[in-house]
Write a structure and sequence with these properties.
The chain has 126 residues and is an alpha+beta fold. It contains 2 helices and 2 strands.
Length: 126
């Protein structure tokens, strides 16, 4: 496809080229202003009552992140709690208690039907 380059077309392109540096300067100034605005807004977002003169009520619902100290202990690789083979500690039944308490126990819902009571001895060493 042949291109017809005329003197009129060349003048048109030269006029456009002459206006380009002005447009670039305007756009560069706009970008600088917008970057400055972004910087200021980020600074506002990062301010809270801890690092500025703002009152705590202005912090809103966003709470600052609390850094917890990480323990310097290393994991032993064992599971938590009692380890395999640990007998545990419990109260064992004894043959000669200090005192014996007799308690009457009945089955729920049947006490009216047949008055069936069981006698349980509670033996404890104090």
């Amino acid at each position: 496809m042949p291109v017809n380059i005329t003197g009129e077309f060349v003048r048109y392109l030269m006029e456009q080229n002459a206006s380009l540096p002005e447009q670039v300067a305007e756009l560069t100034a706009t970008v600088k202003e917008l970057n400055q605005t972004i910087r200021e807004l980020k600074e506002q977002l990062n301010k809270n009552s801890k690092n500025s003169s703002k009152p705590p009520s202005s912090d809103g619902l966003k709470k600052p992140v609390v850094k917890k100290n990480k323990s310097l202990r290393e994991s032993s690789g064992k599971k938590r709690g009692a380890q395999e083979g640990h007998d545990g500690v419990h109260l064992a039944a004894i043959s000669e208690p200090d005192h014996i308490k007799v308690v009457l126990v009945y089955k729920c819902g049947q006490e009216k039907l047949n008055n069936l009571y069981y006698q349980v001895k509670e033996q404890r060493k104090c």
